[in-house]
Amino acid sequence: MSHFQIRYWGVRGSIPVPGQRTVRYGGNTSCLEIQTEQRRIILDAGTGLTQLGATLKQPEHLTMLLSHLHWDHIQGFPFFSGVYRKDFTIDIVSGHRVDNSLESVLKGQMQEPNFPMNMDGLPAKLTFNEIHEHEQFEVPGTVISRVALHHPNGSTGFRFDGGGKSFVHLTDHEHTPEYDESIISFCQGADILSIDTMYTPEMYPNHVGWGHSSWLHGCEIARRADAGQLILFHHNPAHDDEAMDAIGKRSRAEFANTLVAYEGLELEL
Ligand SMILES: [Zn+2]
Ligand SMILES: [Zn+2]
Fold first, then answer.
1. How far away, in angstroms, is 155 Cα from ligand 2 center?
2. Which of 72, 98, 220, 226 has the greatest number of beta carbons closer than 10 A?
3. Is beta strand 155-162 parallel, antiparallel or unpaired with respect to 142-149?
4. Closest Cα to residue 104, out of 60, 69, 134?
5. Which ligand is closest to the CA of 45, given by its number?
């Protein structure tokens, strides 16, 4: 029996790009689901969240982690079916300190004239929590740790340990020139490392300081951290399916056990 069942519902960075060019890898923005025996965990609320929501039928108490509050990581929230159900409790957790609180940023996204429904009127029971550097917390059966990433306005990476297995998800993140040792050690020995690799090595020099890495940086972090498998994530909206195929091929030459995330990808640990 696996401890973690992981599903990718949105793999794209910045903006949704549906259409014929992206039909195999998908066009929705950041959203993952981690199902354990005791708890469903949602990781980011990009547009992929709406399709996840359509699968939820029973009353639930779930945990939603937000890496940060850029649009491509929260824009699915107002359209998530779970928030319109009074038999749902959603614990929303961010590791991302902002001037305004997590709650006020999400409220701001659901205010007239940008959205017809105010967050205060949502039927679901919502809680808002922030975890800070070097803190851990637990959901039943799983320890969740966090690390600060390098990204404009900040971002938070999460590590999930349970049942002797480990899964690490880092988005959005730009490697530093010397590869930040605190991040390498955070990822150390992960069975699966899922990481923002928005650029090719050729694109990266023109995007220094934009807060994202190349697939080559991802391979290097996976190698240094001795990760079991590398998942490339947060795809560039300009990259069509053929471009993603080519990135996967080049990445596997650097780190053999690499997979390019696509919508619907399921992993078990
Ligand atoms: Zn992003
Ligand atoms: Zn971002």
1. 7
2. 72
3. antiparallel
4. 69
5. 1
Residue 238 CA to ligand 2 centre (angstroms):
16
| Position 134 confidence tier, pLDDT thresholds 50, 70, 90 | confident
- In the reported structure, the alpha carbon of residue 46 is separated from the centroid of ligand 2 by a whole-number distance in angstroms of 11
Q: With respect to CATH, is domain 5-268 assigned 3.60.15.10? A: yes
> What's the 2 CA to ligand 2 centre distance in angstroms?
31
Give the residue-averaged pLDDT of 1-6.
92
Token pair listed for 132: 């800070």
* pLDDT score recorded for residue 98: 65
The pLDDT of residue 99 is above 90: no
Expressed in angstroms and rounded, the spacing between residue 228 Cα and the centre of ligand 1 is: 24
Spatial separation of the C-alpha atoms in residues 163 and 156, rounded to whole Å: 23
- Classify burial at 205, counting beta carbons within 10 Å of its beta carbon; exposed 0-12, middle 13-18, buried 19 or more: exposed
Strand arrangement of the beta sheet that strand 40-43 belongs to? 125-130, 88-94, 60-66, 40-43, 31-35, 5-10, 266-268
Determine contact, residues 137/130, Cβ cutoff 8 Å.
no
Closest ligand to Cα 75: 1
